[in-house]
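The authors assume throughout that readers already know how a fold can be written as discrete tokens. For illustration, here is how one protein appears when written out as sequence plus structure tokens:
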Amino acid sequence: MKFFNIAIAAALAGGLATSASPEVLRFSSFEPPVAHITKNILTVWAEDVTAASEGELDVQMFPGGTLGRNPAQQLKLVEDGVADIAWVIPGYTPGRFNEGTVAELPFLVENSTVGSNAMWALFESGLLKGDYENFKLIGVMASPPNGLASAVEMRAPRDLQGQNIRAPGPTMLSAIKSLDAVPVGGITGPTLAESLSRGLISGTFTQWGALETFSAGGVIDHFLELPLGATPMLIVMNKTKYESLSDMAKTAIDEHSGAAFSDRFGRSFDEYLIEAKDRILAENEIAIIEPDEALTSQWQEAMSVAADDWITQTENGQVLYDTFKAELEKAAASN
């Protein structure tokens, strides 16, 4: 009888062990669920990690601001434990990730693949400190370079004088100020179309993906094709949550994070950008301005002060700038 009871207890214990529920990780995105990054990059990552964890994890997406609608609040959601993982635009929380704003400098990042590879390499070099050290970093990326989308024609730097121009990050806003324009911050992607249609801004530093995601293609008339600075992006995880996970769960996350994730993100974003541009131009009359060499030189000269100011005003700025530029060149050569 004693042996029978022990056997029953062992069987029950085994059954309970095998039926244990996976650890749920909540992944927040402020984008709509059908938007490219959320649907084709973040959701796929969540599925890959869930599968790789062999039952240890269930990474669930909460898109469309389900856990918090404001893009500027995504970081706080992770800090407060409302979300375990989130897609964060550092420019919406100025002062938190200063070193990474080097990617916002004009005429550096040529595409998201190269920019994202260089950003992760910069992180791995140990030069991104402060708030970068307070989270588990899933990815450190850069968007494709932002051009100038506007409701009025702005062809040369002088055309921006006195115009209200928006940008998604503090360094790009400083570059706008150097053009004698009025820099406008605080306008996130979801309010971009309304801000343009109401005349609160005349133009914005942005890229075609954002114009499509936030339905702003119908409220612009011109787009200046120049690499006027990329938008730094992060996928952050609550560090305490990560450290509480099993070794199997941590391994599943690590295998799909870091350099691999940043590269996947960049390549997918670049492919999507071409498609988004084609769709927007098919539905709207937008004049594309492609500056020749002489006009490009005007822009480079007019905006050169932005890099000088950034280097001067950023701790270890010259080393960060030089290292990032070298990593961009290395990534470009391998792609």
